[in-house]
Structures are given as C-alpha cells and as structure tokens.
Amino acid sequence: MKNFEIPAYYKSSFISTIKELRKVSDPRKKDFTPTLLDFGSVQFLIARHFGFCYGVENAIEKAYTAVEENPKKNIYLLSQMIHNPIVNDDLENKGVRFIMDTSGNQIIDWRELTRDDIIIIPAFGTTLEIAEKIKSVGLTTEEYNTTCPFVEKVWKVSNKLGENNFTIVIHGKHNHEETRATFSHSNAGGPSLIIKDLKEAQFLEQVILGKESEEEFYRVFKNRYSKNSDIISRLDKIGVVNQTTMLATETQEISDFLKNTMIKKYGVDNYKQHFADTRDTLCYATNDNQQATIGLLKEKADLAIVVGGYNSSNTSHIAELCEERLPTYFINSANAIENKTTLNHFDFHNKKNLIKENYLPVNKKITRIILTSGASCPDTIVDEVLDKILEFYPDTTSKEDILAGLN
Ligand code: SF4
After folding, report:
1. Do residues 175 and 169 touch, judged by C-beta distance below 8 A?
2. Does any ligand 1 atom lie closer than 6 A to the CB of residue 343?
3. Between the CA atoms of 164, 168, 211 and 199, what dihedral angle is there, to the nearest 10 degrees?
C-alpha cells in the first residue's frame, strides 16, 4: 500500500515499531491475534490493526500539502477533514477554515469565497449539490479532493444498481457526511433510501410485502428517500450498499434479511431479479479493525480503552464490539484520564460525556488492558494514553525492553 507523507507528530516510533514487526511476520494480515505488551504489573493487548487508514493518510497528506503550497491564499475545508479533533484543530491553527459543521450547517457563507481561494474536499467526499455550489463560485474541486477511493467505490456500486433499475438501499447514518454524499450520488442514478439498522429493514419488509402503508413509509424515512421518483413502486427491485464504516455483522444481517424478504415475495426461483446480490461495501480498514477487535476479545482482559474522535463512526463500532464483552471506555485523548481512579469517557449511544470512578481494577497483581483506536486516530494519541496509564504502575518494564522482547 502507498506510503503517505504525514506530519511526524502524528506518528509514534513505539507504535510504528510494533506495527512494523507484525507486518513483517504476517505480510498478508492473516493473523488477527493481538500483540501482548507485558510491562509487569500492567499488560496491554494491542490490536493487530488500528489507527490511520489509507483514506485518512491520503486526506492528511493532501490537506497539509495544500497548506504548504498556498501560504498566501485562503484555504477552506468543506467540513471536518476526518473525525478527529486533534487533526482538525491542527489544520485550523494553520489557518484552514471550515465551511460547514459535521451536520452540514453552514458556518461560512458561500459568498465569502472567491475564485482565488483553495478548497479541500474531505475524505468522506461531498454531495453533487455542494460540488455544483463550489463550481458556481469559480473554484475547482480536483486539486485537493481527498475523497477516499473506498467511498467512491460505493458510489460506483450504487450507480451500477441504478443503471440496472434497482432501488439503492443505503445502510448508514443519515447525518454522517459520507452517507449524505453517497445518497446524493446514488440518488442521481436511481431511487435511494437510507436505513440505519435491522429494525428499519424489518419495517421496510412490511412495506414491500404490502403490510405497511405508504404514509408510514414516508413518515419513518422522512428526508431519507429519493423524492424524484415514486420510490414505493420501485421497491420491487432492491440492492444494498453501506456506509464504509458500519458494523460488518449488522450490514450482513440487513442484507440477508432483505434478500429473504424478496424470496418471501417472489419465491426462491425468482428473487435474483428482485435482489441484487452485491457484496458489502465496507472498506478494508473497517473490516481489518473489526476483525482485529474480535481477535482482541478472544483474550482475557479487565477493561478496554478505545481511542478516537467522538463523532467517528468506525471507532464507535469498535467500542460497541468491546462493550459486549468487558467494561469499555471510549476516550478521545490521554487528557480524558484524570488520574488512577477517575476517567472521562463518551457514551456514544446517548451522545453523553460520562465520568467513571475506579475504572482500573484495584488489588490485582496484574491488570490487563485492551488498547485500540479508530481509523482516524493518530498513533501518538494511543501512545500518550499508554504512557499515562503506565504512570500509575511503579516499576514497570521500559518501552525499550518491551520492543527488544518483541524482536
Ligand atoms: S475508514 Fe475506509 S472509507 Fe473511511 S477514509 Fe478510511 S479507508 Fe477510506
């Protein structure tokens, strides 16, 4: 995979060495067992795959290049570059300004932009409507377009479905920038609908089988369906794509469920004309991170710490997998750890900051912690979290000796 130039302060030599050692011993990434770092009274289980993905590194490289190449120009990002506050803050400190917030609310009026400005499209991509808006200002989007190729792949699959007269069912979070962009692109090719979970797939089945009314469909999927076609009459042919960072098991469950819906309606011999058997459109990083998390959870541990931006979809899914098995704390930096007993963490289900007392086990000879992060989290942050926790345990093995032991 391509190597990108990203600022050194997002890299950790400690974490990079561990990743490199695993890569050398398992170049085809077949082994998703974690790496055990045994510091003595505290041990860390580090995921086989975590941290910056291809799309994030590509976006970071292009954004910092834009800053470097255009010192005298106004540089705008459509919205957050990636879902990590540290990276976004750093770009803002370098003078980059965000045009919209993550929900698509305008922060800077389009009229402020001129044709001499620079615009960066984030890794999530953007909608056709916004791309049109940018063009109308006289700006081009090509030079610093950091749309991830794995997101573009979803758009291609959607277009193909549209061309073959299938209605595109997008499994995703309708407020997420990527899903808004995917909906816009797929809507241009064919009727499209966003569903968020299995419960909504079950409701959709009722509509397809004629057991729920059109009114209910429009109420439940308000602002999440194509308005430029009679979508209800087009539900006789459907195909599923997904936001690249969804939970793999959930996406598979939804796809299997809707396939079964079409079998119920049209029979096992005919369903293929009504259900496009697309493979999921999750990206490699989502798959690898989730598999690595499953690998982590096969080991015994006292707690899990998942590091990443609180609006990061892929990170919340890693936390979701972990919390099924053990106490899990989703934090965005080492600053969330106040001391040995108090930690601030994020409840992504209810979008609330929480405080946890006594998050580390007491009176245990050896504490074992699962430590991992999402695809938009710099390794330096994970390293800082590790260092902070090590401070609470005296007489631990040095990091140099740990690395020497792994070699
Ligand atoms: S998580 Fe996947 S789709 Fe998103 S930027 Fe990374 S590689 Fe691309």
Report:
1. no
2. no
3. 150
- The angle, 0 to 180 degrees and rounded to 10, between the axes of the packed helices 284-297 and 313-323 is 20
Nearest CA to ligand 1 atom 4: 55
- Among residues 96, 97, 107, 104, the alpha carbon closest in space to that of 124 is found at 104
Please name which of 187, 180, 201 lies closest in space to residue 229, comparing C-alpha atoms. 187
Instruction: Give the whole-angstrom CA distance, residue 90 versus residue 340.
Output: 29
Of 330, 328, 321, 334, the closest CA to residue 379 belongs to 334
- Known catalytic residues are 178
pLDDT, tens digit, for every residue of 51-84?
999 999 999 999 999 999 999 999 999 998 888 9
> Can you read off the two tokens belonging to residue 299?
């080991």
Check pocket membership of 52 for ligand 1, CB cut-off 6 A: no
Cα 388 vs. chain centroid, distance in angstroms? 26
- Segment 86-95 shows an average pLDDT of 94
Tell how far the Cα of 124 is from the centroid of ligand 1, in angstroms: 8
Q: What tokens does 73 get?
A: 């120009």
324-379 confidence digits (pLDDT tens): 999 999 999 999 999 999 999 999 999 999 999 999 999 899 999 999 999 999 99
pLDDT number for residue 280 = 83
